[in-house]
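Review form for a predicted model. The reviewer records the input and the model, then writes brief findings.
Reviewer: anonymous (R2)
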Amino acid sequence: MKVLIVEDNRELSSGISDYLNGERYVCEPVYDFESAREKLSLFAYDCILLDIMLPDGNGLDLLKFIRKENISSGILIISAKDALDDKVNGLEGGADDYVTKPFHLPELHARLRAIYRRKKLDGTNLVGFNEIELNTDTIEARVHSVLLDVTRKEFDLLLYFVVNKNRVLSKQSIAAHLWGDYTDNLANFDFVYQHVKNLRKKIGAAAGTDYIETVYGLGYKFNTSKS
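Model under review:
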Protein backbone atom coordinates (compact mmCIF):
# COMPACT_ATOMS: atom_id res chain seq x y z
CA MET A 1 0.00 0.00 0.00
CA LYS A 2 1.16 3.51 -0.79
CA VAL A 3 0.24 6.16 1.78
CA LEU A 4 0.45 9.95 1.74
CA ILE A 5 0.93 11.29 5.28
CA VAL A 6 -0.26 14.90 5.63
CA GLU A 7 0.85 15.84 9.14
CA ASP A 8 2.74 18.97 10.24
CA ASN A 9 4.08 17.36 13.43
CA ARG A 10 7.31 15.93 12.04
CA GLU A 11 7.96 13.69 15.02
CA LEU A 12 4.52 12.10 14.73
CA SER A 13 4.83 11.87 10.95
CA SER A 14 8.20 10.13 11.29
CA GLY A 15 6.81 7.70 13.86
CA ILE A 16 3.89 6.80 11.59
CA SER A 17 6.22 6.39 8.60
CA ASP A 18 8.63 4.17 10.52
CA TYR A 19 5.82 1.93 11.73
CA LEU A 20 4.14 1.61 8.33
CA ASN A 21 7.48 1.10 6.59
CA GLY A 22 7.96 -1.82 8.95
CA GLU A 23 4.69 -3.20 7.57
CA ARG A 24 6.17 -2.82 4.05
CA TYR A 25 4.10 0.21 3.10
CA VAL A 26 5.46 2.98 0.89
CA CYS A 27 5.03 6.26 2.79
CA GLU A 28 5.29 9.80 1.43
CA PRO A 29 5.25 12.48 4.16
CA VAL A 30 4.30 16.12 3.60
CA TYR A 31 3.93 18.79 6.25
CA ASP A 32 1.64 21.46 4.81
CA PHE A 33 -1.41 22.05 2.63
CA GLU A 34 0.36 23.19 -0.54
CA SER A 35 2.85 20.31 -0.54
CA ALA A 36 -0.03 17.86 -0.14
CA ARG A 37 -1.96 19.41 -3.01
CA GLU A 38 1.12 19.28 -5.25
CA LYS A 39 1.71 15.60 -4.42
CA LEU A 40 -1.92 14.74 -5.10
CA SER A 41 -1.71 16.50 -8.47
CA LEU A 42 1.33 14.46 -9.52
CA PHE A 43 1.03 11.03 -7.91
CA ALA A 44 -1.53 8.40 -6.91
CA TYR A 45 -1.96 6.94 -3.40
CA ASP A 46 -3.97 4.07 -1.98
CA CYS A 47 -4.68 5.98 1.23
CA ILE A 48 -4.19 9.45 2.66
CA LEU A 49 -3.62 10.17 6.35
CA LEU A 50 -4.89 13.71 6.78
CA ASP A 51 -4.50 16.07 9.71
CA ILE A 52 -7.22 18.74 9.87
CA MET A 53 -5.05 21.53 11.28
CA LEU A 54 -2.20 22.44 8.91
CA PRO A 55 0.10 25.48 9.12
CA ASP A 56 -1.05 26.94 5.78
CA GLY A 57 -4.58 25.63 5.45
CA ASN A 58 -7.30 23.30 6.61
CA GLY A 59 -7.48 19.58 5.95
CA LEU A 60 -11.18 19.93 5.18
CA ASP A 61 -10.28 22.21 2.27
CA LEU A 62 -7.89 19.54 1.03
CA LEU A 63 -10.82 17.11 1.16
CA LYS A 64 -12.74 19.47 -1.14
CA PHE A 65 -9.79 19.47 -3.55
CA ILE A 66 -9.64 15.65 -3.47
CA ARG A 67 -13.35 15.38 -4.21
CA LYS A 68 -13.18 18.02 -6.97
CA GLU A 69 -10.31 16.18 -8.69
CA ASN A 70 -12.06 12.79 -8.35
CA ILE A 71 -9.10 11.31 -6.48
CA SER A 72 -10.05 7.78 -5.43
CA SER A 73 -7.67 7.39 -2.47
CA GLY A 74 -9.03 6.21 0.85
CA ILE A 75 -8.90 8.98 3.46
CA LEU A 76 -8.29 8.62 7.18
CA ILE A 77 -8.46 11.87 9.15
CA ILE A 78 -6.05 12.15 12.06
CA SER A 79 -6.60 15.11 14.35
CA ALA A 80 -6.27 16.31 17.92
CA LYS A 81 -9.81 17.59 17.68
CA ASP A 82 -12.50 15.25 18.95
CA ALA A 83 -15.55 17.49 18.59
CA LEU A 84 -18.52 15.85 16.92
CA ASP A 85 -18.85 18.58 14.26
CA ASP A 86 -15.24 18.01 13.10
CA LYS A 87 -15.90 14.30 12.66
CA VAL A 88 -19.18 14.93 10.84
CA ASN A 89 -17.64 17.58 8.57
CA GLY A 90 -14.74 15.30 7.75
CA LEU A 91 -16.89 12.29 6.95
CA GLU A 92 -19.38 14.34 4.97
CA GLY A 93 -16.46 15.93 3.14
CA GLY A 94 -15.38 12.58 1.77
CA ALA A 95 -13.23 10.98 4.47
CA ASP A 96 -13.63 7.25 5.05
CA ASP A 97 -12.73 7.19 8.74
CA TYR A 98 -11.58 9.38 11.61
CA VAL A 99 -9.12 8.74 14.43
CA THR A 100 -8.36 11.12 17.29
CA LYS A 101 -4.89 11.83 18.64
CA PRO A 102 -3.31 10.28 20.58
CA PHE A 103 -3.81 6.89 18.97
CA HIS A 104 -2.02 3.55 18.94
CA LEU A 105 -0.16 2.77 15.72
CA PRO A 106 -1.58 -0.77 15.44
CA GLU A 107 -5.09 0.77 15.51
CA LEU A 108 -4.08 3.24 12.79
CA HIS A 109 -2.74 0.35 10.73
CA ALA A 110 -5.95 -1.66 11.20
CA ARG A 111 -8.08 1.30 10.11
CA LEU A 112 -5.92 1.81 7.01
CA ARG A 113 -6.26 -1.84 6.06
CA ALA A 114 -10.02 -1.70 6.53
CA ILE A 115 -10.29 1.39 4.31
CA TYR A 116 -8.12 -0.24 1.63
CA ARG A 117 -10.25 -3.38 1.63
CA ARG A 118 -13.44 -1.34 1.28
CA LYS A 119 -12.13 1.03 -1.39
CA LYS A 120 -9.97 -1.25 -3.51
CA LEU A 121 -10.86 -4.88 -2.74
CA ASP A 122 -14.65 -4.84 -2.36
CA GLY A 123 -14.37 -5.39 1.37
CA THR A 124 -12.38 -8.63 1.23
CA ASN A 125 -8.78 -9.66 1.79
CA LEU A 126 -8.97 -12.00 -1.21
CA VAL A 127 -8.57 -10.64 -4.70
CA GLY A 128 -7.79 -12.29 -7.98
CA PHE A 129 -8.77 -13.19 -11.50
CA ASN A 130 -9.47 -16.66 -12.87
CA GLU A 131 -6.69 -18.96 -11.64
CA ILE A 132 -4.82 -16.19 -9.79
CA GLU A 133 -5.67 -15.54 -6.13
CA LEU A 134 -4.02 -13.07 -3.77
CA ASN A 135 -4.48 -12.93 0.00
CA THR A 136 -3.60 -9.47 1.30
CA ASP A 137 -3.62 -10.65 4.92
CA THR A 138 -1.10 -13.46 4.50
CA ILE A 139 0.70 -11.90 1.50
CA GLU A 140 0.31 -15.13 -0.46
CA ALA A 141 -0.16 -15.49 -4.20
CA ARG A 142 -1.54 -18.68 -5.72
CA VAL A 143 -2.04 -19.88 -9.28
CA HIS A 144 -4.31 -22.92 -9.71
CA SER A 145 -4.08 -23.19 -5.88
CA VAL A 146 -0.28 -23.54 -6.13
CA LEU A 147 1.55 -21.18 -3.77
CA LEU A 148 4.01 -18.96 -5.64
CA ASP A 149 7.41 -18.17 -4.20
CA VAL A 150 7.18 -14.41 -4.74
CA THR A 151 8.94 -11.52 -3.07
CA ARG A 152 6.91 -8.84 -1.33
CA LYS A 153 7.48 -6.45 -4.25
CA GLU A 154 6.36 -9.14 -6.73
CA PHE A 155 3.22 -9.70 -4.66
CA ASP A 156 2.52 -5.96 -4.56
CA LEU A 157 3.16 -5.70 -8.29
CA LEU A 158 0.72 -8.51 -9.09
CA LEU A 159 -1.87 -6.97 -6.77
CA TYR A 160 -1.41 -3.61 -8.49
CA PHE A 161 -1.97 -5.24 -11.87
CA VAL A 162 -5.07 -7.17 -10.77
CA VAL A 163 -6.68 -4.19 -9.02
CA ASN A 164 -6.05 -2.11 -12.16
CA LYS A 165 -6.80 -4.81 -14.73
CA ASN A 166 -7.26 -3.69 -18.35
CA ARG A 167 -5.65 -0.33 -17.58
CA VAL A 168 -2.33 0.65 -19.14
CA LEU A 169 0.15 1.32 -16.33
CA SER A 170 3.29 3.21 -17.22
CA LYS A 171 6.64 2.08 -15.89
CA GLN A 172 6.84 5.41 -14.08
CA SER A 173 3.51 4.91 -12.31
CA ILE A 174 4.43 1.35 -11.32
CA ALA A 175 7.78 2.51 -9.95
CA ALA A 176 6.25 5.41 -8.02
CA HIS A 177 3.49 3.22 -6.57
CA LEU A 178 5.77 0.41 -5.39
CA TRP A 179 9.03 2.20 -4.59
CA GLY A 180 8.11 5.81 -3.92
CA ASP A 181 7.63 9.17 -5.61
CA TYR A 182 11.41 9.76 -5.83
CA THR A 183 11.56 7.26 -8.71
CA ASP A 184 9.85 9.83 -10.94
CA ASN A 185 13.27 11.40 -11.50
CA LEU A 186 15.16 8.22 -12.37
CA ALA A 187 16.80 7.93 -15.78
CA ASN A 188 15.43 4.46 -16.52
CA PHE A 189 13.05 1.87 -15.11
CA ASP A 190 14.88 -1.35 -15.92
CA PHE A 191 14.16 -2.61 -12.40
CA VAL A 192 10.43 -2.56 -13.21
CA TYR A 193 11.04 -4.68 -16.29
CA GLN A 194 13.04 -7.18 -14.21
CA HIS A 195 10.27 -7.53 -11.62
CA VAL A 196 7.65 -7.99 -14.33
CA LYS A 197 9.85 -10.59 -16.02
CA ASN A 198 10.32 -12.53 -12.77
CA LEU A 199 6.60 -12.40 -12.02
CA ARG A 200 5.68 -13.69 -15.48
CA LYS A 201 8.16 -16.52 -15.12
CA LYS A 202 6.72 -17.64 -11.77
CA ILE A 203 3.13 -17.48 -12.99
CA GLY A 204 4.08 -19.45 -16.09
CA ALA A 205 5.86 -22.10 -14.01
CA ALA A 206 2.54 -22.71 -12.22
CA ALA A 207 0.76 -23.12 -15.59
CA GLY A 208 -0.91 -19.74 -15.26
CA THR A 209 -1.90 -17.51 -18.17
CA ASP A 210 0.40 -14.57 -18.90
CA TYR A 211 -2.13 -11.77 -18.54
CA ILE A 212 0.60 -9.13 -18.25
CA GLU A 213 0.85 -7.54 -21.66
CA THR A 214 3.66 -5.21 -22.71
CA VAL A 215 2.31 -2.02 -24.24
CA TYR A 216 5.32 -0.83 -26.18
CA GLY A 217 6.34 2.73 -25.52
CA LEU A 218 3.88 3.02 -22.63
CA GLY A 219 4.16 0.26 -20.03
CA TYR A 220 2.09 -2.80 -19.14
CA LYS A 221 -1.50 -3.94 -18.92
CA PHE A 222 -3.17 -6.86 -17.12
CA ASN A 223 -5.22 -8.02 -20.11
CA THR A 224 -8.25 -10.07 -19.06
CA SER A 225 -9.13 -10.84 -22.68
CA LYS A 226 -6.29 -13.39 -22.68
CA SER A 227 -8.37 -15.70 -20.48
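Findings: The radius of gyration is 18 Å.
Further findings: The first strand starts at residue 2 and ends at 6.
Recommendation: see findings above.
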